[in-house]
Write a structure and sequence with these properties.
76% helix; MetI-like fold; mainly alpha; 0% strand; 12 helices; 286 residues; globular
């Protein structure tokens, strides 16, 4: 091993040690606990695959899983559409473009719990009063049904994260060679043609990054779910993260919750890696 290799590993060592202590070790320890009946107090006994067998029979876990999947699909689509739209807007020759960038990004700086309570006030009070004044029954009791609770969570998440996704698209939009777009304009290509044939294909790497971020965020959402609906009504808007937390700290079934967390981790990892692999292939083709 030469001096260059030693220097490389010395610089990399702090990161690897921190990753091992903070991520790998707790994960392996938790994975081992998922094969016990540990409740957080007494010493757990080995129960084999029983927690995983019970997990797939758990109707509450299945409901939370499908609700989370639906939420993730909808938010991934909306966040990428809104993020790209905002990026295209603020990269135009506007005097207020810098101000607009700050305004659109600002909601991402607010914590999820605070945002949840802010939007809870809007949905419960502002929407209700607007529905009464306009005689629109659908605006009243917005968070009292599963459907409106779902869209409340979607609206909150889209409002919070669209500015963050916008920044990613801005970085890639600004890296597109201007002479390529200008040449297409000279050849008579319209705005839609330039976007469809030049800009959008060159944004494929940004799409890969944004898809990864929005997918993982959509599956892992907890703070907003807790403060906006708290899983109600009747746990119908409870997502996987909240179901795992409640299993661990309300029901005191720590090992069972860890089994849910392991399955949750494997599902999110598989979906995220699959979309990265697929989108990377599309980048090569383009």
């Amino acid at each position: 091993m030469n001096n260059r290799s030693i220097s490389y590993w010395l610089f990399l060592a702090p990161v690897l040690i921190a990753l091992g202590l903070v991520v790998v070790t707790p994960f392996m320890y938790g994975f081992g606990l998922s094969f016990t009946n540990w409740n957080g107090v007494s010493i757990g006994q080995f129960v084999g695959m029983q927690n995983y067998i019970d997990l797939f029979r758990d109707g509450e876990f299945r409901n939370a899983f499908w609700f989370t999947v639906l939420f993730a699909v909808v938010t991934v689509i909306l966040l990428n559409v809104f993020g790209l739209g905002l990026a295209l807007l603020v990269t135009q020759s506007l005097k207020s473009s810098n101000l607009l960038r700050a305004v659109f990004f600002m909601p991402n700086l607010i914590g999820g719990l605070i945002l949840g309570f802010i939007w809870q006030f809007i949905f419960v009070n502002a929407f209700s009063q607007a529905g009464t004044l306009l005689n629109i029954e659908g605006l009243q009791g917005w968070l009292s049904t599963t459907g409106t609770g779902f869209w409340g969570l979607v609206i909150l998440t889209a409002w919070q994260m669209a500015g963050y996704i916008m920044v990613i698209y801005i970085a890639f939009l600004q890296s597109i060679p201007g002479d390529v777009v200008e040449a297409a304009k000279i050849d008579g290509a319209g705005s839609w043609q330039r976007f469809k044939s030049i800009i959008f294909p060159l944004l494929a790497p940004a799409f890969t990054v944004s898809m990864f971020i929005t997918l993982s965020a959509g599956f892992k959402i907890y703070d907003q779910n807790l403060s906006l609906t708290n899983g109600g009504p009747f746990d119908s808007t409870q997502m996987l993260a909240m179901d795992i937390v409640r299993t661990a700290f309300v029901d005191n079934e720590m090992a069972y919750a860890q089994g849910k967390a392991v399955v949750f981790f494997l599902i999110v990892t598989a979906i995220a890696l699959a979309q990265v692999f697929y989108n990377k292939r599309r980048e090569v083709e383009m």
